[in-house]
Design the sequence.
């Protein structure tokens, strides 16, 4: 997030929420947004499905899945045409505006209506509301990123924010909501194939030397593989062993039949987790990690806030701290530098090697409660919002973008578009929440949401269960007929292993981020007895 969660309550005057069911996926953040609305802020929600946060919106906008770039281009077309752009911000802090202006000129509200199914007048209303209620915050989640055009979608959010001068100010910005509690921290620590900790490029010789000197060894000057590339590598033999830690690809990967085939071909599969997940069931070795309640250390949340985590109970049974397991394996393999005795020592090394964490210490966290990076030195207060005065590269660059359709569109054989997501009572692959008796009782099984028009066309006629089929597989589950979703679109939550939505989803991915297109694929539905 460029900005901070408390700003939603006190500073933001307009929320543009897209690709996020905030109240179910991030309920504490949604509480701040709703408090901001009580103060007078406006809420715009744009989604292919009438989600829970949409019920509280001042404007709710249905749009066709996978048409985000066209939608944003249409909003910018209106803002520029009606003289609502922040010309001073554009002139002083950006470059490439004329190219963007020429690109979005083609995306008139009428043209965008044909692509997105958003009425032209609704598009104008949204554009005006966002542009005239500064500071306005864009809030998104995986509904933006999980597309073959996910990178373009994210760039579109930045284009719109810069166009209206909503960057580098309290209450504004572009704010992606992370999917799990420490995803931000994992990425910060180099849990990506192209960077060392602190987003220091693996392709830089200077960075490589820095870590070579500190660690005694460093990786090559080449970008590594993403999750899906590693799984596919197990099939062709280019990847012989996989170490899966706190991840459940046998439920979270797209095209699960293919993922299972690949994982079963791995010569050696190690899974480190707190439960025997669907992936752990395939493993040659399972290493028992610990839950949050058994950990000491830090988590970094979605607003870049580093917070202490303190052990409440001793690890149960044979479970061990994740860092201890990693260090012991490294030592057995003859590596040096893995002789840490506690998480504080690890944090000290992080501060030495990661500029954005340079001023974050256990002592400061004890005194202050938390710190937001970038925090480069011990006299730095942390950074509540990014890009104040200037962008990291100096000038912000507009990215003119052309709309590209999703990789797989409906046809005569598969006439419906499937999109996937979460529900309030379950979390990701259900590894934890489906073991909670109370949470399980709230939503006990998988289901598909289908519009009444589509239900009539497939002859549902009171049938309770359906078979959903894509080019990759099929599942059987209960049907929920609802007008909360538009005709031609169906929704399935992905938490349920016995009817895994990702059996159906497409493994086509964004060429830059390599994130698969979970949010759009073509399916057919038929009722079953």
Sequence:
């Amino acid at each position: 997030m460029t900005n901070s969660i408390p700003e939603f309550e006190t500073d933001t005057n307009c929320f543009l929420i897209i690709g996020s069911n905030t109240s179910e996926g991030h309920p504490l953040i949604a509480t701040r947004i709703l408090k901001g609305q009580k103060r007078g802020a406006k809420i715009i929600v744009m989604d292919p499905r009438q989600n829970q946060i949409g019920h509280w919106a001042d404007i709710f906008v249905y749009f066709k899945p996978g048409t985000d770039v066209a939608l944003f281009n249409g909003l910018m077309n209106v803002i520029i045409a009606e003289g609502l752009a922040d010309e001073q911000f554009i002139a002083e802090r950006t470059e490439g505006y004329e190219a963007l202006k020429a690109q979005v000129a083609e995306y008139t509200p009428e043209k965008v209506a044909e692509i997105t199914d958003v009425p032209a007048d609704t598009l104008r209303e949204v554009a005006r509301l966002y542009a005239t209620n500064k500071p306005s915050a864009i809030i998104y989640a995986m509904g933006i990123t999980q597309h073959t055009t996910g990178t373009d979608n994210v760039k579109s959010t930045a284009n719109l924010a810069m166009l209206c001068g909503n960057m580098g100010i309290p209450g504004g910005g572009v704010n992606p909501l992370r999917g799990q509690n420490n995803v931000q921290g994992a990425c910060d620590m180099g849990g990506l194939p192209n960077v060392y900790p602190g987003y220091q490029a693996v392709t830089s010789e200077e960075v490589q030397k820095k870590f070579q000197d500190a660690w005694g060894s460093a990786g090559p000057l080449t970008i590594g593989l993403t999750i899906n590339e590693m799984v596919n590598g197990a099939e062709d033999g280019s990847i012989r062993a996989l170490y899966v830690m706190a991840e459940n690809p046998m439920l979270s990967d797209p095209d699960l039949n293919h993922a299972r085939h690949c994982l079963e071909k791995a010569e050696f599969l190690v899974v480190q987790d707190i439960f025997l997940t669907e992936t752990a069931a395939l493993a040659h070795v399972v290493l028992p990690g610990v839950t949050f309640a058994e950990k000491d250390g830090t988590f970094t949340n979605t607003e870049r806030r580093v917070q202490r985590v303190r052990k409440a109970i001793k690890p149960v049974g044979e479970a061990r701290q994740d860092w201890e397991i990693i260090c012991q394996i490294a030592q057995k393999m003859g590596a040096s530098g893995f002789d840490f005795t506690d998480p504080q020592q690890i944090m000290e090394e992080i501060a030495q090697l990661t500029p954005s964490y340079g001023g974050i210490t256990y002592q400061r966290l004890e005194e202050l409660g938390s710190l937001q990076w970038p925090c480069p030195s011990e006299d730095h207060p942390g950074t509540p919002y990014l890009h104040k005065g200037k962008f990291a590269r100096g000038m912000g660059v507009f990215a003119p973008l052309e709309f590209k359709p999703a990789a797989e569109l409906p046809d005569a054989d598969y006439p419906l578009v499937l999109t996937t997501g979460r529900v309030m009572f379950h979390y990701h692959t259900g590894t934890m929440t489906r073991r909670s008796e109370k949470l399980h009782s709230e939503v006990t099984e998988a289901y598909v949401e289908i519009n009444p028009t589509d239900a009539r066309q497939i002859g549902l006629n009171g049938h309770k269960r359906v078979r959903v089929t894509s080019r990759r597989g099929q599942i059987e589950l209960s049907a929920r007929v609802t007008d909360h979703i538009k005709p031609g679109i169906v929704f399935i939550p992905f938490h349920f292993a016995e009817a895994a939505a990702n059996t159906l989803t497409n493994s086509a991915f964004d060429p830059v981020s390599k994130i698969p297109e979970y949010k759009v694929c073509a399916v057919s539905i038929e009722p079953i007895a």
User: Anything to note?
Assistant: The chain has four domains: 5-177, 179-223+303-377, 225-288, 416-528. The chain has a mean pLDDT of 94.
